[in-house]
């Protein structure tokens, strides 16, 4: 079983092929151990257990016998986790987690087509292939910085991720014909990483390293701390038909071309400038209205003119006088 020491002290002992470690064992402990297991047995001390420490957890989760014996040094109080209760609770928690993941994946728009072609149980089977991941804010996810292991579809449960595309602005020019009053936009030069969209909860996107599902390479930037799941693709052929997998590839690879991304970026820049301009106009209008209201209420003090001072005599001026040349 799994035990937690509440008070007292215990020592863990394991069998040893020889008596090399007997000098580390108190004589009283060694005599009791040999009296219980046999005089020909040898032991070695593994660990001292003090209050708030536990032992036996690994044997409980693996459902195997402990490889050590417990010697109670002094009167102690041990708290025991019942194996049946632990297993029942563990099964309940695993089932609840599976249902939560299945519910999440059923709300992903890219998997809506499965409702018409498969039963609801397909989401539970897919949930078994989902692995939980966590990313801190500011993390950049690319195809190269995590190419050391397999990846799958990223399904977001909490947080926000920015989808970034590397596009080339060289050769792109804004249309000459503009609506009157429209803000001018400065177009950058060369290749730039620009945000295409922001992904939130219940959104799915392939990991940047999944080249077979990607047409235009991209990277991801974590805006807010993210809790997500990766749906591994290695087991998809056993759960989905080949036609369904091809349809999924078609859906997730449907991304705009570079010129469309640039136009969308330019429109967004223009909207942001207009938003700033409108806020400035509203602020100026409110300030003007407040001044007019204060003036109408007599709250503005007008400075009155006083009697002008007398001019100084010319004799008090500087004696330097320019002489007219003859």
Question: Key features?
Answer:
single chain; 326 residues; alpha+beta; six-stranded antiparallel beta sheet; three-stranded antiparallel beta sheet; 8 helices; 32% helix; 25% strand; extended
Distance between the termini: 125 Å
Shape: extended
Coarse structural class? alpha+beta
Largest sheet: 6 strands, antiparallel
Mean pLDDT: 82
Number of helices: 8
Task: Give me the Rg, rounded.
Answer: 38 Å
Number of strands: 12
Parts with pLDDT < 50 across at least 5 consecutive residues: 177-181
Order of helices and strands: EEHEEHEEHHHEEEEEEHHH
Please report which band the strand proportion falls in: under 5%, 5-15%, 15-25%, 25-35%, 35-45% or over 45%.
25-35%
Helix content: 25-40%
Question: What does this protein structure show overall?
Answer:
Helices cover 32% and strands 25% of the residues. The chain has eight helices and twelve strands. The chain has helices at 27-37, 57-61, 83-106, 114-117, 121-127, 236-239, 242-252, 258-296, and strands at 2-7, 10-16, 42-49, 54-55, 69-72, 77-81, 130-135, 140-141, 153-168, 191-199, 204-206, 218-231. Strands 7, 8, 9, 10, 11 and 12 form a six-stranded antiparallel beta sheet that branches. The chain has a three-stranded antiparallel beta sheet with strand order 4-1-6.
């Amino acid at each position: 079983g799994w035990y937690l020491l509440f008070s007292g002290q215990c020592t863990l002992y394991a069998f040893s092929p020889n008596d090399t470690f007997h000098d580390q064992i108190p004589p009283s402990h060694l005599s009791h151990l040999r009296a219980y297991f046999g005089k020909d047995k040898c032991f070695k001390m593994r660990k001292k257990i003090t209050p708030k420490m536990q032992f036996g957890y690994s044997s409980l989760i693996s459902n195997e016998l402990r490889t050590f014996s417990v010697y109670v040094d002094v009167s102690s109080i041990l708290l025991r986790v019942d194996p049946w209760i632990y297993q029942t609770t563990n099964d309940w928690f695993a089932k609840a987690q599976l249902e939560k993941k299945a519910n999440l994946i059923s709300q992903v728009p890219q998997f809506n087509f499965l409702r018409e072609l498969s039963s609801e149980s397909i989401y539970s089977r897919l949930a078994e292939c989902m692995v939980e991941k966590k990313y801190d804010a500011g993390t950049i996810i690319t195809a190269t910085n995590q190419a050391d292991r397999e990846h799958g579809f990223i399904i977001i449960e909490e947080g926000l991720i920015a989808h970034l595309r590397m596009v080339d602005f060289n050769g792109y020019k804004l249309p000459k014909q503009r609506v009157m009053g429209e803000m001018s936009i400065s177009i950058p030069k060369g290749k730039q990483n620009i945000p295409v969209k922001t992904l939130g909860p219940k959104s799915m996107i392939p990991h940047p390293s999944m080249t077979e599902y990607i047409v235009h390479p991209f990277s991801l930037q974590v805006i807010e701390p993210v809790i997500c799941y990766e749906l591994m693709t290695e087991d998809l052929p056993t759960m989905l038909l080949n036609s369904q997998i091809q349809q999924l590839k078609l859906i997730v690879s449907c991304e705009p071309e570079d010129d469309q991304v640039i136009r969308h970026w330019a429109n967004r820049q223009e909207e942001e400038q207009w938003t700033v301009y409108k806020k400035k106009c509203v602020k100026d209008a409110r300030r003007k209205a407040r001044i007019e209201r204060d003036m109408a209420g007599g709250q503005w003090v007008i400075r009155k003119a006083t009697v002008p001072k007398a001019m100084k005599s010319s004799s008090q001026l500087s004696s330097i006088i320019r002489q007219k040349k003859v």
